[in-house]
């Protein structure tokens, strides 16, 4: 029997109730939200439940939505894969702008170590319980998180870049 999305939703709803919500298909991937307090338990359930078997973490990343309300400005997205049934699933959780943090899943998937460090490095999302949460690609001295929307795209003081070469047009101010 193929693993159906309705079955996955039923199992999750029975176990977690209103802590899992907004089930939908997005670009042929079954997606849903989990509260930040229970997302670790939800992912553990998806991995360890014999009927679900999502044993592979494909990706973990962050997203910044500065126009959302205060409690939904950051999102952590987890992509899991059941190789036996060849089913993919997307789990999303939203975090508040003030001190965005969520439990680490490094105890469930060792590969999440690098992904969580990268997400921390670029978005400033704290993964509680991570064994070595520190910058991985940017300099340790950085005080900002460059993928946040408030981070400027380029240093305005640079003279070695011409915006025309990057697909941007510059208004003529020499009139």
From TrEMBL:
This is NADH-quinone oxidoreductase subunit C. It holds the Pfam family Complex1_30kDa. Residues 34-155 form the NADH:ubiquinone oxidoreductase 30kDa subunit domain. The gene is nuoC. It catalyses: a quinone + NADH + 5 H(+)(in) = a quinol + NAD(+) + 4 H(+)(out). Residues 153-175 are annotated as: Disordered. GO terms for cellular component: plasma membrane. It comes from the Bacteria. NDH-1 is composed of 14 different subunits. Subunits NuoB, C, D, E, F, and G constitute the peripheral sector of the complex. Its main location: membrane. PROSITE patterns: COMPLEX1_30K. Keywords: Cell membrane, Membrane, NAD, Quinone, Translocase, Transport.
């Amino acid at each position: 029997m193929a693993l159906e999305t309705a079955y996955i939703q039923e199992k999750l709803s029975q176990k977690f109730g209103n802590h899992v919500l907004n089930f939908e298909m997005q670009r042929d991937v079954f997606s849903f939200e989990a509260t930040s307090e229970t997302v670790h338990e939800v992912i553990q359930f998806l991995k360890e439940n014999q009927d679900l078997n999502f044993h592979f973490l494909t990706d973990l990343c962050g997203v910044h939505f500065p126009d959302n309300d205060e409690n939904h400005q950051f999102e952590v997205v987890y992509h899991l894969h059941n190789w036996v049934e060849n089913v993919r699933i997307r789990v999303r959780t939203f975090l508040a702008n003030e001190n965005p943090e969520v439990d680490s899943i490094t105890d469930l998937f060792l590969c999440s170590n690098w992904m969580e460090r990268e997400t921390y490095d670029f978005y400033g999302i704290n993964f509680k319980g991570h064994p070595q949460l520190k910058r991985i690609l940017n300099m340790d001295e950085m005080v900002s998180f460059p993928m946040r929307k408030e981070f400027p795209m380029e240093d305005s003081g640079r003279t070695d870049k011409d915006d025309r070469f990057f697909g941007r047009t510059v208004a003529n101010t020499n009139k």
